[in-house]
Amino acid sequence: MRELTGYRPEHRELAERVWHGPLLLSTGAAGPLAAAPPEPEAAHGWCRVLTSPGHGIVVFDDVDPVHRRARLSVAALTGAGELLAAAVGVAAGRLRLHRLDGLLAEHDTEGAKAAYENGFSPELTIPDHLWSGGRVGAGVVWGRCFDAA
Known about the structure:
- The protein is an alpha+beta fold.
- 19% of the residues lie in helices and 38% in strands.
- The chain contains 3 helices and 8 strands, in the order E-H-E-E-E-E-H-E-H-E-E.
- The chain has helices at 12-18, 80-92, 109-117; strands at 5-6, 25-27, 48-52, 56-64, 69-76, 99-105, 121-132, 135-145.
- Strands 1, 2, 3, 4, 5, 6, 7 and 8 form an 8-stranded mixed beta sheet that branches.
- The two termini are 25 Å apart.
C-alpha cells in the first residue's frame, strides 16, 4: 500500500499532471483541458489533499463534519487502485469518516473493478453527466460506509 503525505507546494506539478477532475479514480496524465487541481488553502469549505510523491494525489472534499462523510477523488500516474486502498485507510483511520462517495464514468470498467475491490458499491447512475473519452456519458456514484455491519 502506498504511503500518503500532506500536500506541499512542491507537489503542485504532480497534481497538475494527474488531475482529471473530481473522479473517484483516474489514471494517467491529464489532458490540456483538464480542470486545475484543488489546493487545500484555496478550497471553498474543507478540503484535504494528500500526495504519494511520484505517483498521484488523493482529495477528500465536500466534507460534512457532522455526518462524517466526504467525496473522494484519486488521481494517479499508474496504480490508482493502490492509491485508492491507501485513501480508504486514511479515511477510516486518521480522518474517522463514516462514508465516502465518488463518481466514475459508466464505461470505466477498470475503475469500477478497483472501487469494488476497495469496498465501494454502485449507488446511482446519472445519465449524460460526464464528458469522458470524447463523448458525454453516464456517471455512476459509488459509495462506501465504514460503520455498516
